[in-house]
TrEMBL record:
<feature type="domain" description="NADP-dependent oxidoreductase">
    <location>
        <begin position="22"/>
        <end position="284"/>
    </location>
</feature>
<protein>
    <submittedName>
        <fullName>Aryl-alcohol dehydrogenase-like predicted oxidoreductase</fullName>
    </submittedName>
</protein>
<dbReference type="Pfam" id="PF00248">
    <property type="entry name" value="Aldo_ket_red"/>
</dbReference>
<dbReference type="GO" id="GO:0016491">
    <property type="term" value="F:oxidoreductase activity"/>
</dbReference>
<dbReference type="InterPro" id="IPR036812">
    <property type="entry name" value="NAD(P)_OxRdtase_dom_sf"/>
</dbReference>
<dbReference type="InterPro" id="IPR020471">
    <property type="entry name" value="AKR"/>
</dbReference>
<keyword id="KW-0560">Oxidoreductase</keyword>
<dbReference type="GO" id="GO:0005737">
    <property type="term" value="C:cytoplasm"/>
</dbReference>
<dbReference type="InterPro" id="IPR023210">
    <property type="entry name" value="NADP_OxRdtase_dom"/>
</dbReference>
<dbReference type="InterPro" id="IPR050791">
    <property type="entry name" value="Aldo-Keto_reductase"/>
</dbReference>
C-alpha cells in the first residue's frame, strides 16, 4: 500500500464554492492528554500539519476548545501564511474547565469571544467554515443562530455549520442562514444519525463524521479485520474507506498526533473495496 500517494480526487464543494478533498484532517489530537494543554511533542504536531498539506489535505477541522486554543495556535504556527485553497473550519460553543471536561456555552456573548479569539489565533479576517459546536440546552437556539447570522453578515464568517444536531434543528437553523455542514458521531458500526446523513445528502450539505471507528464493537472489528486482511490494509483504513464509499457528501477528518499514523490514514483512499466487501460491511450491526 502506497500511503504517501497524493490525494487528488474525491472532492466536495462546501457551501457550493469551497472545493476540498474529502479526506481531510481533524486537529483535535495535536493537544495534550484529555485535549488539554500543549502536546507532548510540539514539533511533531507541527510536522503532522505540514505533512497533511503535503499529502493533499486542504480541509482542516479544529475548534477554539481544543487545548483550549492550542490547536488553532499550532495551525497558525505550522501553516501560516496558508497555502492557496486551504480551508480551515473551526468551532465555538464549548467551554473547557479541565482535561476531558466540555461544558456547553452557546450564549451570544461567549460565541462573540470565541469567534474573535479564533480569528486572532488563526490570523484570519474571515473563517471559511464556522461551526456551532453544540446546541446549548439553556440558551434558546434562536439566540445562537441570530449571532451566527449577524457574524456572517459582518463578513467574519463565510459559511456556517452545526454539530450533533437532528434534522429539526437543521431546519430551524436554515431559517437564519444556509447550513453547509453537519458534524455528528457516525461510523460503519454507529449509524444513529443515518437519517441526518441522508437529509444532508439530499440538500448537498457536507456530513462530517467524528469518531469514525467505534472501537468497542468487537463484532464489527472482526468483519472489518477480515476485509482489511484481504486488502493488506488496517481496520481503521477500511472503516475510513467505507465512509468515503457510503455517501459522496461525507468529509473525513481523522485526527492523529503522529506523522506515521497520518500517512496510514491517508492510505485509506487507495483501497478499492469490492461490492461484496461493502455488502459485508453494510451488514455490521451497531453496538
Amino acid at each position: 500500500m502506497n500511503s504517501s500517494a497524493i490525494l487528488t480526487s474525491n472532492t466536495f464543494k462546501i457551501g457550493g464554492d469551497l472545493t476540498v478533498n474529502r479526506l481531510g484532517y481533524g486537529a483535535m489530537r495535536i493537544t495534550g492528554k484529555g485535549i488539554w494543554g500543549p502536546p507532548k511533542d510540539q514539533e511533531e504536531a507541527k510536522r503532522v500539519l505540514k505533512r497533511a498539506v503535503e499529502l493533499g489535505v486542504n480541509f482542516i477541522d479544529t475548534a477554539d476548545s481544543y487545548g483550549p486554543h492550542v490547536s488553532e495556535e499550532l495551525i497558525e504556527e505550522a501553516l501560516y501564511p496558508y497555502p492557496e485553497g486551504l480551508v480551515i473550519g473551526t468551532k465555538g460553543g464549548l467551554l473547557r474547565t479541565g482535561p476531558d471536561e466540555w461544558p456547553i456555552n452557546a450564549h451570544p456573548d461567549h460565541l462573540q469571544k470565541a469567534l474573535e479569539g479564533s480569528l486572532k489565533r488563526l490570523k484570519l479576517d474571515q473563517i471559511d467554515l464556522y461551526q456551532l459546536h453544540r446546541i446549548d440546552p439553556i440558551v434558546p437556539a434562536e439566540q445562537s443562530f441570530e449571532f451566527l447570522q449577524k457574524a456572517q453578515q459582518e463578513g467574519k464568517i463565510k459559511h456556517i455549520g452545526l454539530s450533533e444536531v437532528d434534522v429539526d434543528v437543521i431546519k430551524k437553523a436554515q431559517e437564519f442562514f444556509e447550513v453547509v455542514s453537519v458534524q455528528n458521531m457516525y461510523s460503519v458500526d454507529n449509524r444513529k444519525w443515518e437519517h441526518v446523513l441522508q437529509y444532508c445528502k439530499v440538500h448537498n450539505i457536507a456530513f462530517i463524521p467524528w469518531f469514525p471507528l467505534n472501537a468497542g464493537n468487537v463484532s464489527s472489528q472482526d468483519k472489518l479485520k477480515q476485509v482489511a486482511d484481504k486488502h493488506n490494509a488496517t481496520v481503521h483504513q477500511v472503516a475510513l474507506n467505507w465512509l468515503l464509499n457510503h455517501a459522496e457528501n461525507i468529509l473525513l477528518i481523522p485526527g492523529t498526533s503522529s506523522v506515521e499514523h497520518l500517512e496510514e490514514n491517508m492510505g485509506a483512499v487507495s483501497i478499492t473495496l469490492s461490492e461484496s466487501d461493502i455488502k459485508e460491511l453494510n451488514s455490521i450491526s451497531p453496538k
